[in-house]
Amino acid sequence: MQEYFTKLAENFINSIPSIISAILILVVSYYGGVLLSRLLRRVLQRQSADTGVIHLLTKSLKWAIISLGVIAALQIFFDVTAFLAGLGILGFTIGFALQNIMQNFVSGVILLIQRPFTVGQVVSIAGFDGTVLKIGLRTTEMKTLDGRIVFLPNGDVLAQPIINYTRADMRRIELSIGVAYDSDSDVVRTIILDEIQQVKGYLETPEPLVFFHTFGASSMDLTVFFWADTALVSPLVAKDEALTRIHQSFAQAHIEIPYPVQVQYYRTPGKKTTRRKTK
Fold first, then answer.
1. In angstroms, rounded to a whole number, what is the distance separating the alpha carbons of residues 152 and 144?
2. Is residue 242 within 8 Å of 173, Cβ to Cβ?
């Protein structure tokens, strides 16, 4: 018995450097995890990330570093390769089974960190235009312009082009107009430019443009471009006001916005063919 305890004491004494090294590794990994998690918390707070995401990421980073420290400390005493290999196989199996969930989770974290949009902003994602209601770790919730509630997987959101209407402080408004062939193009252009300058939110720069571009079936077709301040007026309201003003001014100036004209031929047996225009 005395020999057993003597041998045990010798083994313990010989293991003291290894024990001290393992303790130092654990201490360094613990405080390193705490320090890095605090640093990550500050970065995320500066980015105005969601509180839940900040808590999740900082805790995950902290325990990941501590886990690496524990593995490094155990490696001093015995080979943990087989154990890590088993964990790797298990993790691969779980990850493969939950790949869609993990993809959406990681995408949600990226969205909350990069912040291409925030709650309350009006965006266009995957063909849906609306207001962002919530950015979760798996889905993004939107209320579309027609009142529908849409839940988009974050993986799809991150993979699709994102248009953020709210962040655009100015928008180009496009109007398509047709006038009769006997209209004076200079007068038409002058009226249009005068009227769009009265639209709420109108911006002088970039300069507005009026292009005649097509001889249509019954009209000369033109396109009007001007810019509006989205902080003062929505693009739809600006377009409505511009068209209303132009229509009223055209009526006062006797400039016709023609209806499509069709020519119909009538043939009666034994009689001359007749022609009639219809609008």
1. 12
2. yes
User: Which backbone phi and psi does 131 adopt, to 5 degrees?
Assistant: -100, 135
Residue-level pLDDT at 267: 66
Residue 257 CA, chain-centre distance (Å), reads 40
Query: How far is it, in rounded angstroms, from Cα 106 to Cα 100?
Result: 10
> How many whole angstroms separate alpha carbon 105 and alpha carbon 155?
8
At 41 the three-state DSSP class reads helix
Q: Which residue has the tokens 């524990």?
A: 70
The whole-angstrom distance between residue 55's C-alpha and the CA centroid of its chain comes to 23
Strand partners, 276: 264
pLDDT of residue 168: 83
Which pLDDT does position 197 carry in this prediction? 94
Torsion of CA 89, 92, 96, 102, to 10 degrees: 150
SS3 97: helix
Contacts of 269 (CB under 8 A, 6+ apart): none
Contacting residues for 223 by C-beta, under 8 A, at least 6 apart? 174, 175, 176, 177, 210, 211, 213
What is the CB-side half-sphere exposure of residue 221 using CA atoms within 13 A? 10
The two three-digit tokens of residue 25, written as one number: 């590794």
Positions of the chain with pLDDT lower than 70, given as ranges: 1-15, 47-53, 77-99, 261-279
What pLDDT is attached to residue 251? 92
pLDDT at residue 259, rounded to an integer? 77
- Could you tell me which of 167, 244, 247, 235 has the C-alpha nearest to residue 201? 235
Interatomic CA distance for residues 68 and 65, integer angstroms: 5
Q: What is the Cα–Cα distance from 156 to 138, expressed in whole angstroms? A: 10
